[in-house]
Amino acid sequence: MAKILIVEDDVQLSKLVRDWLKLERHESEIVNDGQEAIERLKVYEYDLIILDLELPVIGGMEILKQFRAAGKKTPVLILTGRTTIDDKEIGFDAGADDYLTKPFHAKELTARIRALMRRVGGQLTKSLVCGDIELDRAAFVVKKAGEEIKLVPREFALLEFLLRNPGTVFPAEALLNRVWSNESDATVDALTTCIKRLRKKLDSDGEPSIIRNVHGVGYGLRNIE
Question: Which stretches in the chain have pLDDT values below 50?
Answer without folding.
Answer: none
